[in-house]
Amino acid sequence: MRSLNKNSTLRIGASVTIGACVLPKLAADFKREAPRLAVEVTEDNTAQIEQLIMSDKLDLALVEGDVGLSDIVSRPFTEDVLVLICGKSHPFAKRASIEPYELETEDFILREVGSGTRKTFENVMNENSLTWKTTWTCNNADTIKMAVTQGLGVSVISQRAVCREIETGILCKVEINNIIFKRRFKLIYHKNKYLTEAMKNFIDFCFKQQY
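User: That's the sequence. What structure does it adopt?
Assistant: C-alpha cells below.
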C-alpha cells in the first residue's frame, strides 16, 4: 500500500445493489489503507458494467449478476440473499410463510432487465416452474421499496437493501416454503487487463473483507 503512486487512480464499477449496500464502506475502508489512491466509481446494472469492462472504461467491478462473456474473469467474493417483501397491510404480512404457488397471483415490482437481482429472481422462479406478473419495472431499490410500502405490489430484493425497513416495520419480509433466492457477488475484470499494484491490492482487500 505504501508504494502506491500519489497520482494513481482506480476505476471501479458496481452494480446497483453493491453500489448502495457494499461498496461505500468497502471503498472507505480501502481508502484508509491507501489514502493517496484516487477511486472513481461508476454504478449501473450488471449488463452495462460488463460492457464498460469490455471497453476498458473500468479497471475492476463488483457485480451481482451473471457474467456471460468469456473475455471477463469472474471471481465470487461474498454471498447475498434476496427476500420477498410486502407492505405491512398486505395479507402476506400477517403470515409466517407462504407456499410458492401463491406468488403467481401477485403483482411484482422488479428491477430492470439486465439487473443481477432481476436475473436471480427469474432463474429461481423458472427452476421452480413458477410464473409471475411484472406490473412495475424500476432501475433502483429506493423506488421498489416505496412502491411496495404503498401496497402497489410485492418484490424480491437483496436483504441488505431492506434491513432498516424490515427492522422498523415499514416493510415485511415473507418466508417462502422450500424456496431461497441466493446468489454470489462477483469481482470482475478483463482477462487481458494489466493489473497494477493498486488493482491487485484492491482485489486482495475485497476477498479479506466480510460485508
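Residues 82 and 158 are 4 Å apart (CA to CA).
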